[in-house]
Amino acid sequence: MGTNYLGFKDLIVFKTSYFLAKKIFELSKSFPKEEKYSLTDQIRRSSRSISVNISEAWSFRAYSKSFINKLTVSYGEMSETKVWLDFARDHDYISDEDYRKLYDKYDEVGKMLNSMINHPEKFCYSK
Description:
Layout: H1 12-28, H2 36-59, H3 64-90, H4 96-118
Helix pairs in contact: 1-2, 1-4, 2-3, 3-4
């Protein structure tokens, strides 16, 4: 598969979701200790799961239904992360500015995932 081979790490949706998960990890370091096993763990898990499921979807490109399924799971994790962001903002763990930046970027991720889900033929080599 030569140098022009596109892998999941080359996808903008992967790069963006991966970057956002790293950003959430850094921001969540300042969350209160009592949130360690709830909000902190949950937002880290769901934010990381987005890019992880994109990578899994990529490995299922021979099976468009499986590809779509994994992207749908990724979309669900993105939605969950946005709710955890709501909690973090509402408890003043993150600033309104950080919240808005992250929320808007997750909206972009959602649009990209929706496009991939609705047009798997652009990515899959199955029927």
